[in-house]
Specification:
By secondary structure, the chain is mostly helical. It contains 15 helices and no strands. It folds into 2 domains: 197 residues, no CATH class; 185 residues, no CATH class. The two termini are 27 Å apart.
Length: 426
């Protein structure tokens, strides 16, 4: 018998309107049957940027590799924080790009300890330090340096392998070259920072030697930049199709609203993290260990005196009270802003991925603020100090994730999706 002709407008049994549309992550109600009949074109056709022209077989391992490098960079930042908090960062007085051979015997250890004993930190802070105590801070700094060099190998070797397989497109190649240059430069920035703490002080200056807060901030900002590029690149390869592709009018409007708020919020999060670098460089977390007041006031007397004497810009990077008050104010702004953006942008029309990213930000911000207060009240123990640094990166990750999840669809993707809708309606 002949097949019964299907009436125009009848629902197709093989296109369940309750099924999720690829790229949206949300179920569509029956009244949107037309949109459900238009699945987006293959990812290699509509993707742009790093994923353009790459098959799924190449994208998946590339994304996993870059995500692993991002996780390694995350651990490097936390390791660096522990090195600073245990006062280990100035234990090695020399630096070589290819790496330093660690001491192998007592004679080597005596030689290394002799170099450290000639440093300002030993004379002014650790004059009673024993060789065994020196070994601990030496291994902390040596481990941090070598962990960074190992990351360089873990990045460069797979990059060469993927290039040999033909999986590195010109655009991806430029991104990888940028990351390699930034990673190599990070070692130089780190030594530039350490050198500032090894410089001799003027006669009579008995202050504890520290690295330059500005150079520390540059070192952390460089690491944060590398980390964000790695996270963004891994996400682009893992999810090449923006959620906005093929989205209905309601979802597109909700994404546009969230996107407009996500970018300035990410800038506030990054600025707050940068201000924390100056707090770390000045060791400001070990002063004014009360909350919410500082020395019984919202604005301590030292703040006004420092700003009057040095000017706001200089005081912000060199005075304990100014750096800490600015960080407190920015942290509070970030906390309020994350909840404000969540309240303003949340919508049932948001695709699931964007909704999860939006809800994650205030939760992470609240946890980070709580951890920051606890760290301050307990005079920055290494455990909480390093956890707070990890929390800053986690919050930055959440901000990057929201910007990524709400990103606009490339024009080519929109055109391809529209063509699919027209073809399905014909």
């Amino acid at each position: 018998m002949g097949a019964t002709p299907r009436r125009r407008g009848a629902a197709r049994a093989d296109l369940d309107p309750g099924l999720p549309l690829p790229g949206l992550g949300a179920r569509l109600p029956p009244r949107r049957r037309l949109a459900a009949t238009a699945a987006p074109p293959p990812a290699t056709t509509i993707s742009a940027g790093l994923a353009a022209g790459l098959p799924a077989a190449a994208r998946r391992p590339l994304a996993a590799w870059l995500a692993a490098c991002a996780a390694w960079t995350f651990s490097m930042v936390v390791f660096g924080g522990l090195t600073r908090l245990t006062r280990s960062g100035l234990s090695m007085t020399e630096w070589r790009f290819a790496g330093e051979r660690p001491p192998r015997g007592e004679a080597d250890w005596d030689a290394e300890f002799g170099k450290y004993r000639a440093s300002p930190e030993f004379r002014l802070v650790n004059a009673t330090m024993t060789l065994d105590e020196f070994k601990f801070i030496y291994w902390m700094e040596w481990g941090h340096r070598m962990w960074g060099r190992a990351l360089g190998v873990a990045f460069a070797a797979p990059a060469a392998f993927f290039a040999a397989r033909g999986w590195v497109t010109p655009r991806l190649g430029r991104r990888l070259a940028l990351l390699l240059a930034l990673g190599g430069g990070q070692g130089l920035v780190g030594w530039w920072m350490v050198r500032s703490g090894l410089e001799e002080r003027p006669p009579g200056d008995r202050r504890e030697p520290r690295v330059s807060p500005t150079r520390l901030a540059a070192h952390l900002a460089s690491a944060g930049t590398i980390y964000c590029i790695l996270v963004w690149s891994a996400l682009h390869l893992a999810f090449p199709v923006p959620l906005a592709v093929g989205a209905g009018a309601g979802a597109a409007a909700a994404l546009a609203k969230a996107r407009a708020l996500a970018k300035p919020l990410a800038a506030v999060v990054a600025t707050t993290a940068a201000s924390g670098a100056f707090v770390a460089g000045l060791d400001a977390g070990r002063a004014y260990n009360t909350f919410p007041l500082m020395a019984g006031k919202w604005v301590p007397d030292e703040y006004r005196a420092a700003v009057a004497a040095l000017g706001l810009a200089t005081a912000a990077t060199s005075d304990t009270a100014v750096a800490q008050l600015h960080h407190r104010a920015l942290a509070a702004t970030t906390l309020v802003a994350t909840f404000g953006v969540w309240a303003a942008a949340r919508s049932r029309a948001l695709p699931r991925g964007a909704a999860v990213a939006l809800a994650a930000l205030p939760a992470v911000a609240a946890a980070q603020a709580t951890l920051g207060v606890a760290t301050l009240l307990t005079h920055v123990p290494p455990s909480l100090g390093s956890a707070h640094q990890a929390g800053a990166l986690t919050l930055l990750t959440a901000a990057v994730g929201l910007v990524f999840a709400t990103r606009a669809a490339p024009a080519a993707a929109v055109a391809a999706a529209a063509a699919g809708v027209v073809a399905a309606a014909a």
